[in-house]
Amino acid sequence: MPKTRVALVTGAGTGIGRAIAFRLAQDGFNVAISDQLCNEPGLTTLVAEIRELGRKVVAVTADVSVEVEIQGMIQRTVEELGQLDVMVANAGVMRFKPFLETTSDDWQKIFAVNGLGTFLCYQYAAKQMIAQGHGGKIIGACSGSGKQAEPMMSAYSSSKFAIRGLTQATAVELGQYGIQVNAYAPGAIETPMIREIGEIVGDWEALKAQEVRKAPVGRFGIPEDISNLVSFLASDQSEFITGQTIPINGGRLCD
Ligand code: NAD
């Protein structure tokens, strides 16, 4: 009997990562869910929900900007669930600030998580998948602002452009091992991250209405819009797709 496939999702305690982990469990994966320590309560409730689906689940706290913690996260996934078939490097941070007020500290923090963290998740997952010898899927979190820069997000946008480059570069090198690497590029999706922007601009409803006006489908995005795509990218159906960063934004045009 074939073994149940295993997915690992970072930033799974809330928002988009939570929806992805739950969806992959619904799809039949055993799931490792990871987040930083301060989001452990989010992991605990998700563990119970995934167990109710009859899937195996392991929760691992790890800071993706720390190399040994990523190594430990992948090691525990394999020890407890047997293998790693799908890596979703979803964890990310954002700063909503004018370029002229963005500090080197802001830049470094964003690049430590979005840049280095994604690079290390891709690399350690790829090493594990190559050792297993039967391919795999690596999926990253880019952003609409990793394709088309927007005001107030210079460091964040730059880090997401980096993820798009990393996704292409790794797809080219990992194809020979049967590993496909793709990323999702969400527009505005209702999660704690986007609500934080709402709080900074002071009018969440106005921000939402502005985004809805820009989207031909005429509604605001929800985490399940992203998990639907990740479900496909994690499946065998996506085998001929690699190196792509796919926009999911209600129809706003970008490359
Ligand atoms: P969120 O802020 O709601 O969740 C992000 C998750 O990442 C949290 O669980 C957080 O604890 C985790 N995280 C942050 N730093 C971490 C670290 N150092 N180590 C481990 N985990 C860490 O954000 P979200 O909206 O769910 O976003 C998920 C991903 O999608 C992010 O990469 C984000 O940049 C991207 N994205 C989101 C939107 C949106 O509109 N929500 C749009 C484009 C891209």
From TrEMBL:
Protein's name in the database: NAD(P)-binding protein
Claim: Plastid is one of the keywords in the record: no
GO function term, MF aspect, one: oxidoreductase activity
InterPro entries per the UniProt record, alphabetical: NAD(P)-bd_dom_sf, Sc_DH/Rdtase_CS, SDR_fam
Family according to the record: Belongs to the short-chain dehydrogenases/reductases (SDR) family.
Xref: Pfam families: adh_short_C2 (PF13561)
Keywords: NADP, Oxidoreductase
NCBIfam families reported in the protein's UniProt record: PRK07231.1
Lineage: superkingdom: Eukaryota
